Each structure stands twice: as structure tokens, then as C-alpha cells.
Protein 1
Amino acid sequence: MGDTGSTDSTGTGGRTVTLALARAINEGLRRAMEDDPKVLVMGEDVGKLGGVFRVTDGLQKDFGEDRVIDTPLAESGIIGTAIGLALRGYRPVCEIQFDGFVFPAADQIITQLAKMPLRSLGTLKLPVVVRIPFGGGIGAVEHHSESPEAHFTHTGGLRVVACSNPADAYMMIQQAVRCDDPVIFFEPKRRYWEKGPVELNAAPDLPFDRGRVVRHGRDVTLLAYGPMIRTCLEAGLAAEEDGRSVEVIDLRTLSPLDTELIFESVRRTGRCVVVHEAPVFGGLGAELAARITENCFYHLEAPVLRVGGFSTPYPPSRLEEHYLPDLDRVLDAVDRVFAF
């Protein structure tokens, strides 16, 4: 995961390297800590071990135990401590080891972190980043393969984002650290080892609250984020064989949504499918479908369809391939949206 290849990009001082997504986050955190001595990293095993996925590997060695802090196994204590540090002028980056472990910290996140800035009429800033590896696909059990994003998009006062590729991971983690609002930063754990080009010295090409068109198309819009971006890109390629032109949008920001980008695409294509790993019932796809229907009704050729997990606890690992949306389920939804 730590191996990289580098090439000189433009000859103007920029440098493009090939990084795995996990290493890209590591490099982004390193850059943020170099730029601001108030940036701290804290969590279970983030120091000497480098995190269970090795995302923080080497940071404690280079920045010391005062800035990369191994905490007790107490998620509520991690977030509560981060809130106190943020009130004293620090910028803590908290790692929740696995997605399902965030729920013991939900009280601190929802009741305190999200509400304190507004409760103080903006006089208090809480620049806390909560990093959460999320989603399935690694052969783990419940509590290790959850997709809890809807809990936090439903909570006012939080920014919620999800990266899907190394370049965005590198840049978005730095943007999250610089943001004065609390940020829930979702990382697609089954994509941690996938590699891509990262321009280390570039400025952000998109603001923090904007999505990205990752595949242009004319006939149907696929909306996704995190681990499902790769699946949707594969679906777009496969749909070409049936003569269908699929546009894929990486939402990147889940709250607030980049509705301008979404509506422009759907009004142009007339069809939309939303894809996420989380259960369909009450998921982010429901909010997207509602907003698209309210704002693009007269442009739609078909209802907005959703593809996601089932309304059950996450299954044993031998069944997760049946639970998680895959290429066939996405293509089936594309077929159905053309049947109207």
C-alpha cells in the first residue's frame, strides 16, 4: 500500500505520483500537519500501529506522540476530547476505526459537535474532522461494514463528504482540516488499495462543496459516492454495448448537496438512478430522489430509481456479495429506467 511511483508532471514544479487511496489520505494528513502545528491526529491505534488500515502510518514517528495520539478504546471520549481541543484552538482529526464503532460517539457528534457553533451564534468554532472508513467488501462482519452516512446527513451543523479516488482523497482531507465546520469524512475502505495519480503540489480543482462529473453521458444520470463510483463507471462502460450513454456524477459532498450540478445533469438526460451501499429505505437516495422530483419534474422521462443495500443488519461475510449493489443490479436499474 505504501509503494508509490512518481513522475514529473508539467515541468513547472508540480509533481504527480501514483498512490493508493489510503496512502493519499496519509500524504494529505502529513501536508496538513506540516502546514499547521495546531493539527492533531487522534484515535485508536493511529500512532505506533499506524491505524488498522495503516492510513496514519509513520505520522507519529515524524510528528511525535503529542500530535499523533493513541487513545483508549472509547469513541465517545475521542470525540469529546476533540471538542475540547477545538475550543482551545486546535484542529483535531479523529479516526473512528470502523464505521459501526461511530455509534458510541453519536451523542457527542450529534448533541455537541454539530450544535455548539450555532448554539453560540457562531462565536465558537469546532474545526473537528471525524474520519470514518465505511462500507463493505472486505469480508468483515457487522460493525465493520456499515454505511451510516444518512445518520449524519440528517444532522444539521455537520459537513459530510466522501472521497472515491486517491486524487480527491489527498485534496479533500486537507480541505476538511482547513474547514472551520465539523466534518464527517467517509473513506471507502474497500478502495483503500486502489491506486491513481495524485498531483502533490496542485491547488484544489474543486471547492469542498462541489461534486464532479466523472463520466459524461446523454441518456441517464447515475448519482453515487465513495465505493460505488467504480461500480457505476463499470456500468456506464457496459451500457455502451446497448447504445446507452451514461453520465456518472461523484457527489463527493453529501451535506450540503451540490444540487446545481445534479439538477443540470438530470434535466439534460431526463433519467436518474441513485446508487449507494447503504439500505435503500430512508437512505440518502430518498432525499436525492425527492429533490430531483421537486425540481426537475417536467424534465423527467421516468421516476428516479434507487439501488442500494437491503433493510437488514449487515450479513455474514459469505453473503455480502448478495447484499451489496453490484454491476448487474446497477445495469438492471438502468434497463428499468428506460422501460417507462
Protein 2
Amino acid sequence: MAYTFQVTVDSADPHALADWWADALGWEVEPSDEAFIRRMIDAGHASEDDTTTHRGVLVWKTGAGIRHPEGLDRAPRILFQLVPEPKTVKNRVHLDVRTGTDDPRSVVERLIAKGATLLHEGRQGPYAWTTLADPENNELCVSP
């Protein structure tokens, strides 16, 4: 049997990081269901402490997800989850962002302008990539 998966990224500010990655990838932040959240609080299954407001919308404090605009059949969901500790070492897993027909240099410049940090340029034979860190220092590579 083949399994599906989602990618989960630990984060100090999951909603802001989900916004950043959705913009970086051209994906969509999953909408919040405020009525559902309120029902869970009213029924005693959650408390106000389990929520926060992000961009004027009531959301679950512990996480935010993003999806490819063509849905989960096109690419797995990415979940950004709240954790108390900061990132301290190099990631053992990272995302490789493939730019397709877009110029990778332009994508790198756009991401840096939006808060990414340039870590290094890499090359192996005919293949080249740029390694960046997102606003919470998670590594990612950009290549054609």
C-alpha cells in the first residue's frame, strides 16, 4: 500500500511563515473556519487560549497549512506548527523549489526581498542551485 504525507515545519510563528511560504511557492494558505473554531470553544473542546487572530481572522494558534492551488492531488500539504524552541542547527530535510520556466535568479531575488537570507550558491556539473534560509532560518534550495 502506498501512503500519502504532508510536510510539517516547526515554527515560532506558523501563520506568518505559512504566509511567506504560500507567497514563495504561489500556493494558498488554507482558510480558517471561524464558525467551527467557535463551536469547538462553545462545546468545551477548545479554549480561547487555543486560538489567536492573524490578519483579523480567528485561527488555531498551533498551526497553519498551505496547499498547491490545484489541490492535494498535485502536491502534498505543508503544515507549519508552533513549537517553543528556536531552530538551532542545519535542517536534515529541506524543500527544493523548482522554478520551471521562471528565471531562478529572479525567484531568489524576490525571496530575498521578502525576508529570505542567501546562504550559498551551489554547482555540481551542469546543475546549479541557490541555498536560502526562510525568515525562521529553515533552508531551501532554488533551481530551474
Protein 3
Amino acid sequence: MATMASRSPFSLMLVLLAPLPIMIAAVGWSHWTALVAVIVATLALTIAFGEPLWIPIYLIGAGLPAWWLGYVALLARGNEDGSFEWYPAGRLVMWCTVIGSVIVAIVMWNVRIDEQQFQNALKLALERMAREYGQSGPDFSRMDVKRTSELIMSFVPPLAAAIITMAYVMNAYLAGRIAMVSGRLKRPWPDLAALRFPRHMSSAFAVALLIWFMPGIAGMIGGIVSGAFIIAYALLGLAVLHDVTRPLGDRVFILSAVYLILFVFWPACVLLAVFGVSDSIFDFRKTATGAPPPAIT
């Protein structure tokens, strides 16, 4: 988190990885260890920068969400035969969407970008680009600055929520992998291709999409939640793709092509999200295997 002060090009990546040490401590040792790490990190940032503002920034942005994910990841329910039913991976992804939505909502509520100032800044940026490119560049003179700024401001919160959600999912994955390689992972590694979401999650996604079209703060909140859900269902779509291609001989080629497309053109994750939502309705994996899916209530 302290790298934000350096304004380095790599600072954003390091900020997104800030929850990783806390999650490693949680899944490799215990949630109590992770909680101590959160307290120590918060005090260290506060002392290093001499600014109490770091306490809520770190606690809300990285420390407490990472601790909570590590805590729920190790929850288990004992069965009569002595085995354990561990917290489902689908619910961990659900918590990542909640965390991503809450963090971005808090940031947007406190920032409150002035629309007129944003329009003026966009106009200056377009004029600077027009001077640099000259007549060989695109013609910005006919662009409706007001409409363009409204579109940008409407898509920034969902995009930010999608990035934060994906960052927390990746941190949880990396923390589990690191703990497993070191032999300290406290739970079995889940079958990620069998990822499933709670039944009510698709309904919540539909409601968020409807609210997105509302004006004002409600529309912004709906967009934030929708952006987080799009990433979650894109991950579900990937899980379904991994599962249904298992019997295919050219599975490696298909999956490599999908990941390459996502790397080159990341908006394609919207199509994966549609695939994931469709699986929640039609259950492609049950159709492919003939086996009933595990229930997540």
C-alpha cells in the first residue's frame, strides 16, 4: 500500500498484491496470525508516514478483507464419517465480489468527481492529442465532450470493481498455491473446474444490472456491483470450459486459445460471463457428465 506514494508505474500492481501476505498467513497458519499481521502492517504504515489516514485506508482496502477471506477459506463442517466439508470455492469468489463492490463504493463515495471538472479535463486532453497528432490523427472536433465524459464516468466504477474483484480472486489463488507448495495449506485444494455459485447469486446479478440503468447514486452502485459480478461469472465460465473440455483431445489448444483471446482482448470476459450465467440456468456440466451437481445453498 505504501507504494502509492511513490507514483511508480508498477505501484498499482503492488497495491493490488497488498492482501497477499495476509492471506498467506491466514491459510498457512491461522486467521489469528493473519489478524496480528494486519495490526502490525497498519501500525507500520502509520508510523512510517506519520499519517493516521493510513489506518482506514489499509484496513478497508487490504487488511480486513484479506483476513476475512483467509478466515472463511478455512471454515469446515464435520460429517458423521469423520470427514470434513470445506467452505466452497464458489462462496469465496462471491465474497470477492462483495469486497470489490464495497471498496469501490467507499472510494467513489469519498472521491465524488465533479462532472464539470472532469469534462474540462477531458476537453484539454483531447485538444492536446489533436495538437500532437495533427491532421493525421483522429478528428475530435465533432466529439460531444459532455456525452463522452458521462459515458466514461459511468463505466469507471464498474471497471474498478471488476479489477478489485479479480485482484482478490488472484490473491486468494496465489495464497493457496504458495501455502500448498510450502506444505502449510490447512485445507485440501478444491477442484476449481467444479466451481459453482449460490443459487441466489444470479438473481442478485440481474437486480444489479437493472439498477445500473437508474440515475444518480443508485445507478453508480448498480454499476459497481454489476462490474464485480461480470468478473465472477467470467471465472465461472472459465471453470465450466475447463470441465466440459476434459474428454476432448484438443483441450489444451482450446483453453490456450481462450486465454490468449482474454489476454489480447480482455472485454471478451463479458462473453465468458454470459456463458457462466447460462451454466447457472442450464447446467452444462450436468449435461456433459450426467452427474447431478453438488448443491450450494
Protein 4
Amino acid sequence: MLEPVRFSTYHGGAREEGLIDFSASLNPYPPEWLDEMFERAKEISNRYPYYEKLEEGLSKLIGEEVTVTAGITEALYLIGILALRGRKVIIPEHTYGEYERVTRIFGGTVVKGPNEPDKLAELVEKDSVVFFCNPNNPDGRFYRVKELKPLLDAIEEGRALLVLDEAFIDFVKDAESPSGENVVKLRTFTKSYGLPGIRVGYVLGFPEAFKSVRMPWGIGSTGVAFLEFLLEDGFEHLRKTMPLIWREKERLERALDVKSDANFFIKRVGDAKKAVESLKKRGILVRDCSSFRLPEHIRFSVRKPEENERLIRALKEVEREMGNGG
């Protein structure tokens, strides 16, 4: 008899038609080659998707050997196989819930700590594992290498493992990323290219270990086609669209009195569930942050100018309606 694991998380993304989706933090500008990519995916969907050569090409583009995975989610489960069983796993209090879920599935012991790297460093022990999201989800705070140093030092001294989730790092201006023998970095294209359905990400660090346990044909023909076009694109799409997102981010910061280093914000509204429903009535979907243990906050992303304008008006109306006054 198989019993379900009694732990679940809620993920963003519209489940209803007709709403402007601010709940999923994605690049709102699709690549110009999107239609061609899907045509290519149809062409190769009658064969098994081998992508070793594309993985080599991506490694050259990144400048470091990568392991391609079906988004960061597959990478988290591979870490479960490789490193979590029987380990002390340190997770910040307000962050992505999948770290805790994967830890429990694979038999690790969850230890919650403050969201600050220096405070987490005090919890590190020999052979422990630390999950850290940078920029953090849901508040968008990005920590520079200098700020991460206490945690990096503790990891090195304790022969522990730091799992650095950099899912949103492409949205950070002048981003920097640490290196280290005991650091695994997880990245994804599904956010920065606005294509969560294609499930393509990669791991930096321990390539032999990750390649030894990942599932075969994990990303499918659409993922393979995406990698083909990505290598030809050479990140030009990101160079074109990120300045547009940064400009709109600054406008939202001024209009709604919020701050973030990423492409999304959290805002305290009092009753998050009520605010979400009120915004839905106005055609807008935002994320209730209860699953992050922040029941008074909502999260919303940066979208195109006209959509952001609708959000600004709607959110101010809802705040007045709920008596928050901003």
C-alpha cells in the first residue's frame, strides 16, 4: 500500500482564464523566435530527445560545465537523492516552500532559521545542507557576495553544502554570484524567457553527480528546441528585455511604495486572501503569500506598462476598500 506524503505547497500561475497574471514572476516579453521554436519542437517530437551536444554548447555559453534539468524542480529532487537523506537541512523561514517539501520527502531534518545569511551561518554543522534563494522568493531581496561571506565561510569550514537557488538572478541589475567547492547553483530559463511550461533549467556544480542520477529525456522535444534557439540567440533576448522590465519595476516602486531587487514585490495588505479575491474581481491575479508564512502579504510581478498601470489603479482601490491606505 502506497501512502501520500502529507505535505504540499501552493505555486503561483493562473488557473483561470481572463485574468492578467501577476502571480507568476515571468518575463512578460516572449522571444521573437517563439513560433519557430514550437515548429521545430513538432519536427523532432517523433524521436527521443537527446541533448548532450546542446548541453555542451550551453556550458560554453555560460563559461562553466552545466547539467541541464527539467527546471529547478528536477534539480531539487536530484539534490534529494544525492544529499538530503539523514541530513540536517537549514531553510530560511520565509522562502520557497519546495525546499522543505523535498527535504521531508527524502528524509532530511528541517531546521528553520532567519532569512539573513550571517544568522543562518550560525546553524551550519558538519555535513549539513543549506538552501538559500538569491534573490529570495517572495521578497526579492538579493544578497551580494560580500553579504553572503559569513554563510560561505561557515559552509567551507563545516564541510557542509550550500544550495543556492538563483532562479531570478537574470532580473537583478549587475548581479554577482559566489563560487566554492561546496556550492551548488540552480538556475532556470523558464522565468527569464517567460516560458514556465517548457521546463528547462541547469545546475552549476558537481556535474558528474547530477548527471548520474537525472532522468533520461527529462526536458522533451520542446525543451530541446528551446535550447537550440537559445544557443543561437546567445542571451540577446535578455539584453533587449531586461531594461524594459527594470524601467517598469522602478515605476511600480514609486507608485506602490514597494522595493525589490528582482522582478516581483511583496506588499502588506492586511488580509491577503481578501485582497486576492478583490483584485480578481478587477481582472487581476496576484499571489497570496500564506504559503510563505506571510498571510498579510501579496506578491505581484512586473509586467508590461499598460498591465502595470491597471495593477496600480486596482491595488490602490483595493487598499482604500480594505482601509489600508497604502
